[in-house]
Amino acid sequence: MTNWTIARHRVAIAGLVVDSVTGKPIPGAHIEIVGKPAAYEEKLALLAASLGSTGREMERPDTARTRADGLFYFLDLPEGRYKVLAFRPKEGLRVKNVLKVKTDREADPYKLKGDKRYGKSQEDAVVSYKDGFGKLVFFKLQPTGVTGRVIGATNKTAVLLAEVRVQGSGERAFTDVQGHYTVAGVQPNQRAKRRLLVSARGYRTEHLEVMVDEPGACKKIEDIKLSREGG
Known about the structure:
Elements: E1 11-19, E2 30-35, H1 38-54, E3 63-65, E4 71-75, E5 80-87, H2 109-113, E6 120-127, E7 137-141, E8 145-152, E9 163-166, E10 172-174, E11 180-184, E12 194-199, E13 206-210, E14 218-220, E15 224-226
Parallel strand pairs: 1-7, 8-14, 8-15
Antiparallel strand pairs: 1-4, 2-3, 2-5, 5-6, 8-11, 9-10, 9-12, 12-13
């Protein structure tokens, strides 16, 4: 097992965050302890009080960011049960000087800080130093997007390497040998539909609209049928 002792500190919680579609690690993911034992609540309150008297700012000790390999860790936490939340943060998000009483708006950090092109994942963790460090906490983040199949309008067979692209943005995907595709990382919008452009060599381009309004959900849409050029 990897030695998680770092400069005489004890690793209390460590984990890995990956993309649920590709399985690849997600660097820079935001990790936040959203449920904690009373001993840790008291520790944070004391730290907040000490900072308040000095006017200093600091990173929150109950948050972390994943490394390039998708790993993260928290050191020297009091023993007890924790709830840990993982999500991709909004671009440029920094967490400073927020050791304070949370407002209702901050009850779900994902709503305030999360990049809605991905969902969130929450897991339980138990900190106990009796038996040493246990296992990694594993998080899978689901990209927001659409999935489906592209087929020929006449013979209903799969269309290979058809491009499915979200108009006005860079998200796109190509179909596999079964005609399946998944366009991931789409920004959800509850007020307007997104327009998909579907094209393939030898076929007419199709346009269709789809509502992508739920963060962290991959919406399955009906088969897209392409007609042959000149047909």
